Structure prediction request, 420 residues.
Amino acid sequence: MKIGIIGGSGLDDPKLIENYEEKEIETPFGKPSSKISCGKISGVDVCILSRHGKNHEFSPSNINFRANIYALYMLGCTSILATSAVGSLKEFIHPGDLVFPDQFIDFTKKRDLTFFDKIGEVRHTQMSEPFSKSLREILIETSKELGYKAHNSATIAVIEGPRFSTKAESKFFQNYADIIGMTSVPEVVLANELNIPYQTIAMSTDYDCWKENEEPVTWEIVKKTMEENSLKVKNLLIKSISKFKNPDLDYIKNSIKSVPNFPKEGIIFRDITSLFLDPVGMKKVIDIMYNRYKDKKIDVVAGIESRGFIIGSILADKLEVAFVPIRKKGKLPREVVSQEYELEYGKDAVEIHKDAIEKGDRVLLHDDLLATGGTMEAAVKLIEQLGGEVVQISFIIELKFLNGIEKLKNYDLDSLIKYE
Prediction:
């Protein structure tokens, strides 16, 4: 699960996320509006993109929507939450209210509405329910928990901008829509083309210009209301994202057997061999890992004896790179390099062929389980001793209470299933 967050007016704050790094992405459709801040919110991977640029330099009509959505796709985002300022076309939707639209009417005039516009690659995308019902239900539930006034469905009229509506236009749109904005189309259309669930979190900032006793909307009004209510949107995002789960991970976790009192009394052993017996679960593991690492430049996958060989070698095949085994001492023929590591009682060692890694190779290291981290730390040292660069460390299982991550905190570490 990786959530793309598109920041609208007043929400492009990378401080929302932990341990973030900024990534500059180049897509087949050009550069997105901003660098993308990637990290975690509530333990869930997120990527935040500033729709209008870091300094609000792109007007709605000049946003490269295709590059924005495609960049999130390239980063592996599985859902998109897009925040946006909107005008209210209904008396009961007040400034400051949250709105979760479920339908749109497109009044834009000059935007690229598809990724598939070359001759011979036309795609007709089904659009009867453009916004994601499952994402919307999480947002609705969370809004209630936080005590925020929110509207659970709405039709949004999307106009070209950057100008606001005339009074005649505003009254016209009132007949067909509940809110009015400038950015949900083509974002939602493009996300649907790539099969990425998408939901707008709209903040009502004004009554457009249809309401006789209200000041007509200006950018200053929009900005002021968004600044006053930005904390509300941030709280909603943080609490909602904490509820996101990948059902495939639940399936994988259920395929792993827990064996009590093994190898000794009081220990619960997580038996991954039961996952190997489940072809559906194995496919889910490989699919998740492949999609996470396919866009990383990886030259070699190295797996640690013995269960690390299984996933590691399949992953290497999918990534179309070499696989290198790392084994316990004395099990590899030919010339090797060796690295000792501490056990609870005594020492052990792992070895790798001396010619397995070339200087400068970018290596993905895989093992089935992270406990105290000693074996993996030794494997990292072996790779670096040969001149390789460990760009990714992956596990199926992480036993968080053993704190093995501390030995590997300087590396990009990824585990599918965590046991507290």
The two ends are 19 Å apart (CA to CA).
